[in-house]
Amino acid sequence: MDVKITTVAKQLPPYTRDTKEILPFVAQWLSNEEERFRRKVLKIFENAAVSRRYGIMSIEEVFSATSFEDKNDIYIREVKKLGVSVLKKALEKANWDPQSLDYIITVSCTGIMIPSIDAFLINELNLRQDVIRLPVTEMGCAAGVSGIIYARNFLKANPEKRAAVIAIEAPTATFQLTDYSMTNMVSAAIFGDGAACTLLSSETKATGPKIIADEMYHFYNATEMMGFKLTNNGLQMILDPKVPETIASHFPKVIHPFLEKHNKTIANIDHLIFHPGGKKIVQTVEELFGDLGKNIEDTKAVLMEYGNMSSATVLYVLERFMDRNPSPGETGLMLSFGPGFSAQRILLEW
After folding, report:
1. Residue ranges of the domains in the chain?
2. Over the stretch 100-154, which tens digit does the pLDDT of each residue have?
3. Do the beta carbons of residue 163 and residue 201 sit within 8 Å?
4. What is the mean pLDDT of the chain?
5. Rounded to whole angstroms, how far apart are CA atoms 238 and 246?
6. Is the model's pLDDT at 294 over the cut of 80?
7. Domain spanning 210-349 has what CATH number?
C-alpha cells in the first residue's frame, strides 16, 4: 500500500522581529549582570545563524515577568488560531474537503492543554465525528517526522484514506526570565514559533512523493540530553552542549543501515531534508556530508529565516522541496532528532 505526501503548508504567528532588533531587549534584560556575561550572551544571539523569527506574543510580552499560567494561556489561545489557519491552508492547497479527513495527528511540546488542539480543530473545521485523533506531546523536535511515521502506519493499513499531521510550536512561551544559564541563553537565541501541516493519502489517485520507508533510532542512556523540566516558572529547557558531537558519533548507525535496507547509499539520495536543530548541528551535518557533494542549504535557510521551531521546522524544509516539484525518481531523506534521545528517518521518492 503506497502512502504519499500530498502537500505541506506553513502558518506563521503574527509577531516578527529581526535578531538585531531583539538585541536591545536582551541587553536590557541582562542589565544587572556582569558586562562580560552580557557581551557573551549578545554574541550568542548574533552568531546563532538566525536572522529573523516569529512569535505568538510581542517582544515586550516575551520579556515581561509573566507567570507560567499567563504564558500558557497565551500559548493555548494562539495555537488554536495557528492550528485552524494552517489546516485550512493545507486543505485548500490540496483541494480537500475537511470532511474527507480520516485521521488527524497534532504535535506540540511547548505548552500544556487538555483537551488537545485536535479537539478544537474538529469543532472549528467541522471535521467528521468519527475522525481518528492522536495528539503527540513529548517528542520535541523529532515529532514532525514522528507524526508522519504514525500517519503512514495508519494509512498503510487502511487503503483510500487521508491523514493530516499538524505541528504547532511556540518556544517563546517557554522562555525563562529568571534563568541565566547558558542553556536558556542558547535556546532563546535559536528558537522561534511556527506551525505546519502535512497531508498524506493512501488513495490510488494520490499524488506527491511516496514514502518508501521510515524508522526510528533510539540512543541508549541519553534521556538527560534534551527536553523540558517543569518548574514553577514553566517549561525549563534542557539542552546538553554535547548534543552535536553525540549526533555526529551516531550518524553512521543512523543513516547507512537504514538506507542499505532499501538498496540505497547516501550517494543515491538527491535531497537532504534535515531538521535545523541549531548552528552547531548544521555544521556537524555539513562536515559529514560535504565531501559527498551533498548540501543542506534549505535546512540552513529555514534556520536563518525562522529559527528552530521544534517539531514544525523540518516540515518547513520539506515544503521548500515539495514546492520545487523534484523530478520523478528523485529521492529524499528526512531526518530529525529529539528528546529520548532519538532520530526519526523517512525515505521519500518522487
Report:
1. 4-201, 210-349
2. 999 999 999 999 999 999 999 999 999 999 999 999 988 888 899 999 999 999 9
3. yes
4. 91
5. 15
6. no
7. 3.40.47.10
Give Cα 173 distance to the centre of its chain: 16
Q: CATH for 4-201? A: 3.40.47.10
- The closest of 168, 169, 127, 133 to 150, measured between CA atoms, is 133
Q: Do domains 4-201 and 210-349 have the same CATH topology?
A: yes
Please count the other Cβ atoms lying within 10 Å of the Cβ belonging to residue 177: 15
Task: List beta partners, residue 344.
Answer: 216, 336
Tell me 95's DSSP state. T
Strands 234-239 and 226-231: antiparallel
CA 258 to chain centre: 22
DSSP state, residue 185:
H
- The number of helices, as runs of H, and strands, as runs of E, in the chain is 11, 13
**Which grid cell is 81?**
488560531
Grid cell of 138 as nine digits: 513529548
pTM: predicted TM-score of the whole model, two decimal places: 0.94
CA distance 44 to 188: 10
Cα(213)–Cα(334) distance, rounded to whole angstroms? 10
Q: Is 192 helix (H, G, I), strand (E, B) or coil?
A: coil
Label the pairing between strands 132-136 and 103-107.
parallel
Spell out the alpha helix ranges (H) of the chain. Answer: 19-29, 35-46, 59-62, 68-94, 117-124, 143-157, 182-190, 243-260, 279-289, 297-306, 313-324
Q: What residue type is assigned to position 313 of the chain?
A: T
- Do residues 254 and 340 lie in contact, with contact meaning Cβ atoms separated by under 8 Å? no
The mean pLDDT value for 154-174 works out to 96
Give the Cα separation of 339 and 226 in Å (integer): 5
